[in-house]
Amino acid sequence: MALLLATALGLALPAATNAAPAKITERSKQKQAAEAQRADLRQKLDNLKRDISQTETQKDDASDALADSEEAVSKATRSLRDLGAEQNQTEAKLAKLAKQHDELSKTVTKQQTQLANLLRQQYVAGNEDRIKLLLSGDNPNRINRDLQYMGYVSQAQAKLLESLRANLAAVEANQTEAQNAKDDLDEIAQEQRDQKKLLDQEKAKRAALLSQLSSKLSSQRKEVGNIERDDQRLSGLVDKLAQLIEAQKQAEAAAREKLRQQQLAQAKAKAEAQAQAARERQRLLEQQRAARANKPPAGDTTVKPKPVNPDAIDDDQPPAVAVTPPAPATPVARNELTPEADVKDVSYGKPFESLRGQLRLPVRGDVMARFGSKRGDGPSWKGLFIRTPEGAEVKAVAAGRVVFADWLRGFGNLIIVDHGNQYMTIYGNNQALLKRPGDTVKAGDVIANAGNSGGNEQSGLYFEIRHQGRAFDPLGWVTTR
């Protein structure tokens, strides 16, 4: 009784005297693993950009001086957004853990009370043990009944103690996980401060560069040769991305065929094993018949087939891109509707070509330049330029996968979404790219913030739709009303 009471009192200590909280989290390791997964895709995109830049004859474009700071602004903005989302998730997790802790604490308190009452009743009853009962000389039936009763009581005590131990361990694990979540929040908060400081520095650096390069940028924007080279650069990038996507599809098809062949081989091996087993059964039957007829049995040649396990096939992901041009002073139209992320995605799972007339423009603003209109003495526009405030949310017009998200001369921070069947949408002049190559998006997902990167005069978004590398009028597919 004394030992049991001491055990119960030891278990009844509140919250199991709080074990030292773990200070090491897995967050940094997870981030490193995610970066490692993107490394191969990033290398492919770097190779594409390098191939395009090797064909350049003009190396002193003023917008190139802005490249590093505009890329840094984009990365810092995306990091801040990612950290904000991660912070919300961690805070929700912490709130859930706190609720679980309260529920566990109530359960532990209730079980401690039950155990104390059980021990008190046992003590008041005289704490008769089995040996005393057996030596009492009482009626055997009564002794047997009392022994069974005591066994039930002991089992109830044991179960209660075990449950209490489990709940106390759960409380301790909950406290450790909560502490880890708090450590994550502290780490996120520090990263947010660092990224905010970096963002402010890079914005100031870019503003200073723009002030220094304003006259040179203005003159270069008007040069017909520059505009044509920008168009060729984007077209070359889209063509190379299409080739990369096609190569990826072929690799995936080859992987599926390899898996199919492995499955066929496995099925064949299984069938052969079953046939061999049937033959073995028949042979054993014949041996038994032969033994009954006083004939020597045949030799045993059991063959055990080896199972064939198919190799795991890894899916690779494709990349993404972005574009930027200038605009006239008077808007030719006004867009007030953008894709909605809070309703069912009408584009999900549908061929892009079936969405004609159902799409919305990716950002609200004034349509300053339309597809096919002349750009001064230069070539015609191959997309739309929508004037909108810096930082405005740019949304994907349909479901797809980001295949390029980087800075490109002439278009600044550019993002390209592949929608399948060689349809792509292109979003340029962005202040920040919020998605990475390989990310899947739905219609209405925010993928960028509008801006004037790439040396553009006005803040806004350059938007194109292409099929098989050829640009066509987006207004034939979307509505501005």
From TrEMBL:
Keywords: Hydrolase, Signal. It comes from the Bacteria. Pfam families: Peptidase_M23 (PF01551). Residues 381-474 form the M23ase beta-sheet core domain. GO terms for molecular function: metalloendopeptidase activity. Residues 1-19 form the signal peptide. InterPro entries: Cell_wall_metabolism_enzyme, Dup_hybrid_motif, M23ase_b-sheet_dom. This is Periplasmic septal ring factor with murein hydrolase activity EnvC/YibP. Transmembrane segments: none annotated. Residues 48-68, 289-319 are annotated as: Disordered. Residues 48-62 have a biased composition (Basic and acidic residues). PANTHER family: MUREIN HYDROLASE ACTIVATOR ENVC, PEPTIDASE-RELATED. The keyword Hydrolase applies.
